[in-house]
Amino acid sequence: MKLGWKKKLFISVGILLSIFVIVYVILLLTMNKPPLAEFKTCQAILSKAKSVNADVYSPEYYSAADKKYKAALIEWKMQNQRFFFFRNYSKSKELILAAKLKAEQANASSGANKNSMKMKYLQEIELLKHKLDNYHEVFIHLPLKVNVRKNYEFGKLFLDQGLNAFSSGDIMLATKKLNEGKLRIGIADKEVNILIKEYFTNYSKWQGWFASTIRTSSQNNSYAFIVDKMKHKGYLYYRGKLSKEYDVEFGRNWIGDKVFAGDKATPEGMYRVIKKKGNGDSRYYKAMLINYPNEEDYAAFNRKKRQGTLSRNSNIGGLIEIHGEGGKGADWTSGCVALENSELDELFSRMSVGTPVTIVGSTQSLAELLN
Questions:
Q1: Which end of the chain is more exposed for a tag (fewer CB within 10 A), N or C?
Q2: C-alpha distance from residue 250 to each of 71, 231, 232 (Å)
Q3: How far, CA to CA in Å, does 285 sit from each of 137, 234, 343, 344?
Q4: Pairing state between β 241-247 and 233-238
Q5: Whole-prediction pTM value?
Q6: Triad 303, 357, 275: Cα angle to 5°
Q7: CB < 8 Å & 24+ apart, contacts of 128-137
Q8: Domain locations in the chain?
Q9: What are phi and psi of 18, to 5 degrees?
């Protein structure tokens, strides 16, 4: 009896252990397992996304993928700290699958976004280059403040740096330099636009002078000299037709009309040669003196004095000439119009006392200049 009882007990314990082992195996086989394969796949996709700079060109998708990946990793570690029978990796799996999807989207959109940035960069760089071309072709001679000119120069430097980065494939750096250049050029443009728009309010008056001078040249079968300040050009007309053009230089503060003696401005108006000075008679090689100030200049000067915009001690000035020793590449005269000596010789031989000399801000509208 005693032996039989022990045998039965042994058999019962064996059965219970077998059941326990079976249950344990079943639990092991059926319990929720960590998504190892999904983590491995997601890591590979994130690495690929990083290699194509998806963090730069598709930051929203890449950032979302990275956050969800890290959240999945935290959830996995948290479940690992629990007793294995109670571990549940479903949330970790859900997060890693979401991370995988975002990483794939980052990969897919990165190339498209990079190409889009390239196109946008190329379009904007063309616009800025056009502005700089206008500056160098039209506005380079403007008497601008030092900080305005520096903004243009720094803007150009940033654009050049951006172009170097673009050619190296670094679109982000290129775009950054583009934006820095755009900011500098935009600040300078604002100042220039204010200055130029105010100056060109006189354009209709310039047009009238210009047309009248050419008409006189045509009617009298004679020469006339027209000076265009914006272009820094002098145009010699004969019988109403353009005969030749010359590069000219002015007073340092040439934009705008001459107001008083010593303002370093070149006058604007319709004048004529009143005296020719040969070599040795002029301070600047040869020269042709014009009749500044004329009646209109006196009237404007006296009006400003009455209005109080000019000091009572101000003088109107005079001795404005077309003279030699130009070709310096800068505006340097006291208000005169300077040419290179060889070109002044040619002009001197064709013009005489009484030849019309008309000085205008521009012979073209601002729209024509910019286009």
A1: N
A2: 71, 11, 8
A3: 29, 18, 12, 9
A4: antiparallel
A5: 0.68
A6: 95
A7: 128/155, 128/159, 128/178, 128/181, 128/182, 128/185, 129/159, 131/185, 131/189, 132/156, 132/159, 132/185, 134/369, 134/370, 135/188, 135/192
A8: 1-29, 31-111, 113-200, 202-370
A9: -65, -45
Give per-residue pLDDT as tens, 187-231. Answer: 988 888 888 999 999 999 999 999 999 999 999 999 999 999 999
State how beta strands 356-360 and 223-228 pair.
Answer: parallel
- Bridge-based pairing of strands 337-338 and 321-323 is parallel
Q: Whole-angstrom Cα distance, residue 75 to residue 91? A: 7
**Residues 23, 77: contact at Cβ < 8 Å?**
no
How is 153-221 classified by DSSP, letter by letter? HHHHHHHHHHHHHHHTT-HHHHHHHHHHHHHHHHHHHHHHHHHHHHHGGGHHHHHHHHHHHHHHHHHTT
What's the CATH superfamily of 202-370?
L,D-transpeptidase catalytic domain-like (2.40.440.10)
Identity of the residue numbered 18 = S
Res 1: pLDDT: 47
Q: Which of 114, 325, 300 is nearest to 202 (CA)?
A: 300
Question: pLDDT tens across 20-58, in order?
Answer: 666 555 545 445 678 888 889 999 988 988 888 888 888
Which of helix, strand or coil describes residue 275? strand
SS3 324: coil
d(Cα 225, Cα 234) in Å, to the nearest integer?
A: 7
